[in-house]
Each structure stands twice: as structure tokens, then as C-alpha cells.
Amino acid sequence: MAVKGIGQVDKKYDGSNLRIGILHARWNKKIIDSLVSGAIQKLIELGVKESNIIIESVPGSFELPFGSKLFFEKQQKKQQPLDAIIPIGVLIKGSTMHFEYICESTTQQLMKLNFDLNIPVIFGVLTCLTEEQAEARAGLIEGKMHNHGEDWGAAAVEMATKFGV
Ligand code: RBF
């Protein structure tokens, strides 16, 4: 296993037995679509079956934590439990304090959900100062950064398989 840098290793995890939920917000649609596609592409590359990737949406990033909890519970009731959830949102700073409050509360609650649900809940939220920053992190600007959705897909498979939770 060659270590490439902090957080980046070559080891591939096998996601073939996993069921992964993607819950995305609908604000900043073009960027969201690219991030969701990146996550799906990586999950499939790591062996997750297309039929085991369940995609739902919520209005905005603020709805991601509670939406994730309801999503988890709904799948459990259907006896099709999720092994990990990737909540995906794009927050872009505006001219009021909304950005700061939504970033703070969403981040705190998504972190807490890992412990409450006892499955990995990935941090798939971009918190950007400009739309351009978000586009770069969604792989939409040629030659600038990469699609972070792929990282979130890889993190979900690694976390759901590595420790056998
Ligand atoms: N949701 C996002 O996912 N990204 C945003 O950048 C975003 N900006 C918002 C800015 C304002 C002023 C408001 C009122 C809402 C914004 N939302 C955004 C929506 C928010 O996450 C939530 O869906 C709504 O506040 C309804 O609870």
C-alpha cells in the first residue's frame, strides 16, 4: 500500500456487499449534479452495485442532517438498511449571515449523526466563498482541482468496510 499523502492511499476497498444512500440538496444544481455523479462513479468503481445506490433529495443543505436520519430509518423499516450515507450539499456565501449559521449547524449535526446512527455519515458538503470555488471542487473547471464527490464515495466504502461496523 503506497502512501501518496495524508488521507490518500492506493488501497482499494471492496464495496460489493454495501448499500449506500446518497442524499443531496437541490441548491446550486449544476454543481450538485456533478458531485453526485462523481460519488456514484467512484462507488461503482469500488464494486457497489448500481441497484444498491439509493438516491434521495432534500430542499437545501440545512435539511441534510434530519433528512439523513429519516432516510436511514425509512430504509431500515423496509429491511434494506444502508451501510453508509453520503449527504451532499453546496453552500455558497452570500451577503448575510445565513451561510455561517447553515455551515455550522449542518456540520455539527452531520458529525453527530455518525454516532447516533452508528454508520458512517460522510461530510459531503462544500462550504465555499464563491461559486467558482465550488465549481472547481466539483470538477467543473478544467485543470483546477478535482471532483470531491469521488473522494466522498471512496470514504463511504472505506469506512463501511474497514472496521466492519
Ligand atoms: N441551501 C444550500 O444548500 N446552499 C446554499 O447556498 C443556500 N443558501 C441559502 C441562502 C439563504 C438566504 C436561504 C434563506 C437559504 C439558503 N439555502 C441554501 C437553503 C437552506 O439550506 C434551507 O433549505 C432553507 O433555509 C429551508 O430550511
The count of helical stretches stands at 5
Using only C-alpha atoms, the radius of gyration works out to 15 Å
CATH H-tier superfamily: Lumazine/riboflavin synthase
Bound molecules: riboflavin
Brief summary of the model shown:
This protein has 165 residues and is an alpha/beta fold.
Description of the molecule:
The protein has helices at 29-45, 64-77, 98-117, 131-137, 148-162; strands at residues 3-5, 8-9, 20-25, 53-58, 84-92, 124-128. By secondary structure, it is an alpha/beta fold. The chain has one domain (18-160): Lumazine/riboflavin synthase (Rossmann fold, 3-Layer(aba) Sandwich). The strands form two sheets. A four-stranded parallel β-sheet has the order 4-3-5-6, sandwiched between helices. Strand 3 (20-25), helix 1 (29-45) and strand 4 (53-58) form a beta-alpha-beta unit. The mean pLDDT is 94. It binds riboflavin. Riboflavin binds at residues 25, 27-28, 59-63, 89-92, 94, 98, 102. Riboflavin (RBF) is lined by residues 25, 27-28, 59-63, 89-92, 94, 98, 102.
Write the layout of secondary structure elements.
Layout (H helix, E strand, L loop, with lengths): L2 E3 L2 E2 L10 E6 L3 H17 L7 E6 L5 H14 L6 E9 L5 H20 L6 E5 L2 H7 L10 H15 L3
Parallel strand pairs: 3-4, 3-5, 5-6
Antiparallel strand pairs: 1-2
Helix pairs in contact: 1-5, 2-3
The structure holds riboflavin (RBF).
From the structure above, extract its key features:
165 residues, alpha/beta, Rossmann fold, 5 helices, 6 strands, binds riboflavin
